[in-house]
From TrEMBL:
It holds the Pfam family SEC-C. Signal peptide: none annotated. It comes from the Bacteria. It comes from Acidovorax temperans. InterPro entries: SEC_C_motif, YgfB-like, YgfB-like_sf. This is Zinc chelation protein SecC.
Length: 273
């Protein structure tokens, strides 16, 4: 599946400057729509759409993420109309260009056979250690954020992933095969675990390896399990393909009934001959 902009876009990761640009774009979109999520949420959502059982077109998934959820009517081969959240066509085009770059990177990573999380080709969610970032701030700035609820490492990413799962329940319904259904449940459980708060003892900082502890070791391990779960989901749905709707065959007329073609002859003397 390709996304909105270009089927030939290279699988090239985003630079730090481009990630910051995406954050700024989303901040601007939020001035026109309060429900516009953070980029970490978007990345989780994108990953789930990529892993979905059937290809979901941008005209269907982008309004769910950045609009009112209503699928856009777009003729095949035509560009997406301007979504209300964007200031103009140029802003939307730039967002989609960066979106496509990240999309292609994820697809390449998930379709690459890797054995360890240390492999540089392994999929890496755009997950943020916000608690580590806040803990690394100067004391005066930390004091300004006192009392604010700060998400755990990977929590916002996992919420974005599950947002996509919950909005396309038919595409994520358990298959009939018991082994495949268990595979699906186990993988989703690993991601759901990240949607929960990290209440363990802070031992490491994922924001800065030299920063103050902000994340439990159990959370780091759960994050690794979630990455492998994404690989499992990608493999599961690719192996099974889109869900096939079984059509019930209309019963054939009796041999002495009038033929359905309207010839006036009995079925046995016409199409049933």
């Amino acid at each position: 599946m390709t996304t909105a902009s270009s089927a030939a876009a290279p699988a090239l990761g985003l630079t730090a400057a481009e990630l910051e640009e995406l954050d700024n774009l989303l901040d601007d979109l939020r001035t026109r729509g309060e429900e516009i999520p953070q980029w970490e949420f978007c990345d989780g959502f994108m990953t789930a759409v990529i892993c979905s059982r059937r290809p979901i077109a941008p005209a269907e998934y982008l309004p769910m993420l950045l609009g009112d959820g209503a699928e856009l009517e777009v003729a095949e081969g035509e560009p997406l109309p301007l979504l209300p959240a964007f200031a103009d066509a140029a802003q939307q085009a730039r967002f989609l260009e960066l979106w496509d770059r990240r999309w292609n990177e994820i697809v390449t990573q998930l379709d690459t056979d890797v054995k360890t999380l240390d492999d540089e080709r392994t999929f890496q969610p755009e997950a943020m250690d916000m608690r580590g970032a806040v803990a690394s701030l100067p004391e005066a700035e930390r004091a300004e954020m006192e009392g604010q609820e700060i998400p755990s490492f990977g929590q916002v990413w996992a919420l974005g992933f599950m947002f996509a799962v919950e909005n396309w329940p038919e595409d994520w319904a358990a298959p009939r095969d018991k082994e495949a259904a268990q595979w699906l449940d186990d993988a989703l459980d690993s991601i759901v675990a990240l949607t929960e708060d990290d209440t363990g003892k802070p031992e490491v900082c994922m924001y800065n390896e030299d920063g103050p502890p902000s994340t439990s070791q159990a959370r780091v391990e759960a994050f690794g399990e979630a990455i492998w779960a994404v690989y499992d989901l990608r493999q599961l749905w690719k192996s099974m393909g889109p869900r096939v709707e079984t059509l019930r065959k209309a019963p054939e007329p009796g041999r002495n009934d009038p033929c359905h073609c309207g010839s006036g002859k009995k079925y046995k003397k016409c199409h049933g001959a």
